[in-house]
Predict the structure.
Amino acid sequence: MVKLIDTHQHLIYPEAAGYAWTDGIETLAHKPFPLERYAELSAGGGIAGTLFMETGVDDADYQAEARFVADLAKGAGSGILGLIASCRPETDDGFDAWLEECEGLGVVGYRRILHVMPDELSTGATFRKNLRKLGDRGKPFDLCMLPRQLPLGLELAQHCDNTTIILDHCGVPDIAGSETEEWRKGVAALAALPNTYCKLSGLLAYCAPGQATQQAIQPYVDHVLEVFGPTRMVWGSDWPVVELANGLPDWLAVTHALLGALSEDEAAAIGHGTATRLYGLEGQA
């Protein structure tokens, strides 16, 4: 079984932060998804460690979330190797101070969710200047955009060529709608840049109800494998969002089937090797 580092582990603790984005999503709304439940669901799945991924908490809570999870990570057996924290590159107010604090919180990367924000947010000079600061610190930036926004992601990656950009969820293809051309072109253009990588995650949740299968996502996996190559890909569970499909155990089974079709070196790169290098995890898992 290929060893996995989960680079996209969400956790939901309603007592610690607000999660308004889950309102109206019956599977997720007003429910805890704690570390203990993740451990139960992932047992036997080959996960050697995780990176907590900021969970899109209410804006006022994004720093509190990172501090809370940093404390969780210190617990024996947490399995958390580091945090990918939320940040606000669009403003200078407090940005440098937050980066400084994060150095003591075990933060190994950052994200600003963009698919729910105005398109122009990532085009501002302040945003791009601050994103370059992440590269100066050796910290990657996770890019979460819809297919129509991928040209904006391309521009951002070009302007911030010193920063490693990791495309979340394979670029969020509309698998249920089978509208692929815009996505295919956008992903290929991003992949042509040397500072971009792709995260194999989220795909089953984009399938039509009842059709979340390996067969349904295989063409999308094949495309990102072709344009990025296995050595520029990492893996993530996207738990608990994966519960919108068939759950974490199913995604782990599909993952091992997908990686089992590759060479040992290719599977190891996606499973843990590239993540270890990008997030500076040598010797931790």
